[in-house]
Specification:
The chain has 171 residues and is mainly beta. It is built from one helix and 15 strands.
């Protein structure tokens, strides 16, 4: 018997494909989208999601928590979102990257292996070679993937440690 199967926990109970029409037949914007299931459970993906959206609502099995997930299908991306409180609140899947939102933090993984972390205006990047770049309102710091080079720049100073020594000076 497969151990993963015996320890798996049920999370989802149903899924429904829906279309949301944000404009009426005359092209006027609606205050609230008109939503209904498509015929034959098949729907085209409109070029402009502000006009028409195709999405899937997946219902959670737990009655005491809002675990429902909405999967929005777009021409250029798939957006998965849920209510805050259970960890991640959004996932955006695009051609060149995947982004995950947890609280106020975005983590992005690019096709080349670059990882980006953005929180409260601070950004951290990890390149495929292992080098790390940190940018804040006050400073920018970098460490090479092999740990040999370090640098820091602020508005008034620059400092670096490398194989050839240490440099520190006012700008």
């Amino acid at each position: 018997m497969n151990v993963a199967v015996s320890t798996a926990q049920k999370v989802w109970k149903s899924a429904q494909l829906l279309i949301g029409f944000h404009q009426d037949q005359r092209g006027r914007q609606r205050d609230v989208a008109r939503v209904w299931p498509p015929k034959n459970a098949s729907a085209g993906i409109h070029a402009d999601p502000a006009v028409q959206e195709c999405f899937l609502v997946v219902k959670g099995i737990a009655k005491d928590q809002s675990q429902d997930v909405q999967v929005k299908l777009r021409e250029d991306q798939i957006v998965v979102r849920r209510e805050p409180g259970l960890g991640w609140t959004g996932v955006v899947i695009e051609e060149g990257r995947i982004s995950v939102r947890v609280g106020d933090t975005w983590v992005r993984i690019a096709a080349d292996g670059t990882v980006g972390h953005e929180m409260n205006g601070d950004k951290t990047y990890i390149d495929p070679d292992g080098s790390v770049l940190k940018k804040t309102e006050f400073a920018e710091a970098m460490i090479s993937g092999d740990g040999v080079e370090l640098s820091r720049r602020t508005e008034g100073t620059i400092a670096a440690i490398g194989e050839d020594g240490i440099i520190a000076k006012n700008r």
